[in-house]
Write a structure and sequence with these properties.
Among the domains are: 58 residues, no CATH class; 80 residues, DNA polymerase, domain 1, CATH 1.10.150; 60 residues, Orthogonal Bundle (DNA polymerase, domain 1). 49% of the residues lie in helices and 3% in strands. The protein is mainly alpha-helical. It is elongated. About 2% of the residues have low confidence.
Length: 288
């Protein structure tokens, strides 16, 4: 009753109309939400065709995203390069540790031996290996060393007079190592004392040294005044290759304990002595 007495007739009609509109909207919303959504029917043939097109696009994109391989020298494989090739971290580390010793890989078989990669991976990446010309053209290089009779001392070239072009005719010697040999030789006034000193050239493999000595030898050795091992001072000993001050003191201390050396070979018993260099060190010493 208050509703009728408080509002005017026109206001009452407006309120009633608003209530009716609200009720109609509410019923319409509920009815719309209860109406089931019709499923969209797709022709199976059209769907299959569309799916095949999507699959082909995925395959095409996958192929384009795969890094392309170009010829490369396996000696210079980086962490990223090894990863893209499919190598494991252990295989990459083995290769880099080997290269850190200034050694080189010159064949597919040697690459697998060092890295221990699987046969399947080697078969995939080996066709892209590109080695230096002196490795790949071994048949031309072998003409100076293979299938020849052993040369006498007089028939060989003097290693102290050999030129870079002469050295490069040896299998395994390119421009780099021929320059290294000559630079090492010229660092001594008078050149090499013995063929043994080739062992001191960093990175020169034993098999390559063997090839060199088939064609070259030291015919005019550098004259050396040998040092008496049993009376040498520290300052005299450090003038010898591979002997530093610390080792010189150890040599003299051992000499005092042994009351002199009876044989130069006894140096190999000295603490921290480089046993693999004994033949080179002996070139500078005597027992007198």
């Amino acid at each position: 009753m208050k509703f009728y007495t408080y509002f005017s007739q026109q206001q009452r009609l407006a309120v009633i109309a608003l209530i009716v509109v609200i009720i109609v909207v509410e019923f319409s919303w509920v009815s719309y939400n209860k109406t089931p959504t019709d499923s969209f029917a797709v022709d199976p043939a059209i769907y299959l065709k569309f799916q095949n097109e999507v699959d082909s696009l995925i395959v095409h994109q996958s192929r384009n995203s795969t890094p392309k391989l170009y010829p490369f020298n396996p000696n210079y494989i980086t962490d990223y390069k090894g990863y893209t090739l499919g190598m494991s971290s252990q295989e990459i580390n083995r290769l880099q540790a080997y290269r850190a010793t200034n050694k080189w890989i010159n064949s597919r078989r040697e690459f697998q031996r060092i890295t221990k990669v699987s046969d399947s991976l080697l078969k995939t990446i080996a066709p892209y290996f590109k080695f230096p010309d002196w490795v790949t053209s071994s048949s031309q290089k072998l003409t100076s060393t293979a299938n020849t009779s052993v040369k006498s001392f007089a028939q060989k070239f003097d290693l102290n007079k050999a030129t870079a072009s002469q050295l490069q005719k040896v299998y395994g010697i390119g421009a780099f190592y021929s320059e290294q040999i000559i630079r090492f030789r010229d660092a001594f006034e008078g050149g090499f004392i013995s063929d043994l000193q080739l062992q001191d050239i960093k990175g020169l493999k034993p098999e390559v040294i063997e090839n060199i000595l088939k064609e070259f030898t030291v015919q005019t050795p550098r004259k050396v005044a040998k040092i008496s091992l049993n009376s040498a001072t520290v300052d005299q000993l450090v003038t010898i290759q591979h002997i530093d001050y610390e080792l010189a003191y150890e040599i003299i201390e051992f000499r005092m304990l042994m009351d002199g050396y009876k044989d130069i070979e006894e140096l190999t018993k000295v603490k921290e002595f480089p046993k693999e260099k004994i033949e080179i060190i002996k070139l500078y010493l005597s027992l007198n």
